[in-house]
Batch of 3 targets.
Target 1
Amino acid sequence: MRTQPLSNWTHEHVFNQHQQRAGENRTIAIVILTAVMMVVEIAAGVIYGSMALLADGLHMASHATALGLAVFAYVVSRRLAADRRFAFGVGKINSLAGFASAVLLLGFALFMAVESTERLINPLAISFDKALIVATVGLVVNGVSAWVLMSTPHGHDEVHDHDDEHDHEHDHHGHDHNLRAAYLHVLADALTSLLAIVALLAGKYLDAGWLDPVMGLVGAALVARWSYSLIRDTARVLLDGQADDHQLEQLRHAIEGTSTDRVTDLHLWSIGHGIFAAEIALVSAEPKTPDHYKSLIPATLNIVHSTVEVHRYSDP
């Protein structure tokens, strides 16, 4: 009998993490653009005595740092993709950077709230005309940055599954948490720039200087809500959160079908944005090979690594 090579039963855990992502180059460009605008706004805020511009510049500074983390995650993920020290690949590095970025964003929302409250108590004079020009330029820069990131094709990366001798090729419909974090940072920058413009116009033409800190509080609330959403989603990946009930039932139904096979233990969790690992234990009066059950897994679930444990039982 001819013996098959051992490689037929082994596979790598790279899962296409070695490939450059669509968002990487665009994120680098946004980091540079954000850093330049950050310097301009901080300088203008100091020179013109505008606390609104200074706060917006500091906002951009925090985001430039966060976007830098996003770029770092892209590079590290690609370089460590084949590192065997990572049991299921490096997909979670992307989510880890997104989580850190979201925490930074939440911290800035708190800073905005504190500073806005202080300005309500102790109003500051603003050089409206010059501050409006810089704030408008900042809004345009943020709008362009958001458009660049939004147009990045990040939802349909191709993924290959190499479970033993079975190769399943399907579309990857997950979301890049890193790219999403960068996009949310840019949107937050655009929001604060817009609120600054509204407040500056109101202060100049309506003598409503109080509107500036009020707009800051509104912006802080919106930014906090966005960051919380991203923290929740990335934490679910980092903590090996179980997939939703619909995915679990879809997998269970595919394995059990109408036969005597019964799933007794089922785990399905994310090991990166849009890719999953599964552990399945089942009992059957007429058990088949693990390869058979793996072949029943729907490709739409994006399960790139699966382990199947089969036990036989007999009716009493």
Target 2
Amino acid sequence: MSRRRRALLLAGLSLLLGALAASEVSGREAEIERRVGSSVKVVVAVKAIGRGRTIEPEMLALRELPGKFAPAESFADGQQLIGSRAAVAIPAGTDLQPALLQGADVGAGGALVVTGANERLCRVIVVGDAGEITPGSRIDLLITRDTANGSAATRVALRDAEVVEVEPTSSVAEGAGAGLPRVALALRVSLQQAVLLAEAQSAARELRALPRPPAASP
């Protein structure tokens, strides 16, 4: 065998071995990803954050984790957290989660919703059209109850309440409210209002949202 043919044979063999090695590595990577999940970005505290401290950009960073090991409720964008406060002391290296932040909840799409010390997010299912009520809009909320004599009484339960989230719902009702469109809302309310709404959802005949025009004042 000539030197040229031997060189070509060795080159071909090297390419074949390289392809086989690359295929094996790719297969191992696919198997690892199948077991632990794709990498996800998670916001982490790069320095210790004291309880009650306001979250600032320099306190945060992003790191990648296998999906299997990422917290169930984590954040992929540090901008979501700026301005919120730590509910507990947060050690450096901790993955940020809503439970670690004061008055925080995870909204649609993983967005963080921060409420004040006396504010709560209250979720209710009401009569209303999802096409007329949007996040950031404001509503009045009516509660209709049955009275002792069998009639119905309606009153204004909330005025100018802020809508944080809106989701269509398949919930249905019987009686006079049957067939009316319903929507699930997350409202920013006071603790006292949250208690009222919780009681109303179990005892009232109907909760109805009345959208306010964008330019309307309280």
Target 3
Amino acid sequence: MSCCSTFCTTTQRQFSPRLAARQLARYRRKGPDPTTRLLRDLLIALNPTNRTLLDIGAGIGVLTCELLHAGFEHATAVDASSAYVACGREEAARRRVAASIDWVEGDFVDLAPRLPRADVVTLDRVVCCYPAYEPLLTAALEHAGQAVGLSYPRDRWYVRAVMAFDNGVRRLRGGAFRTFVHAPTGMAALLRAGGFHLVGRRTTLTWSVDVYTRMNAAAHTHEGHGNVLAVSSRVIT
């Protein structure tokens, strides 16, 4: 599948082959970034059944590979950058999980009707790339059988200041890509309206990492049929 939307065009320019190669080299040296590590650990502790994954905005496939190595059975990895998809395929082959991943290039919102549902849907540092989070999260929830995990910028003045500066630099350089700090309360309300319940949260100075499960799944867990995390918040510097 190819990508031809305006979002894809700006994403291709922002997430270039050079940036993809740099991130892949960093991952091989240091492992996952803090938000990815926190999201991975929350989902592993959740211990979902069946363990199929839909990783939206998968990038070079760090979270996808990490969860497959932790016991997930199959993943669909979606990203709008062809360079990131190429690096992701390379890394998956190196880590011998390529047969367990279906790579899809394009804008998830456009591709959603053609993509399979999964037990777990993830959006690691993805919501901030969309001007409007509603279509993205709504489509993600429709694909999630058991849980949704996401990370997003915290709504703090210093986070907004940094993003405004970065967006200003991109504007001066002629780039069209922008990042956004969306209201956490609005996103939480949409997730609850979609039938999901917050079961885990971790924070860094700039990011929040949340895991939600379907409310009926949470109810079964309270009856002793599963393992749901206690809602908590921890700041990682």
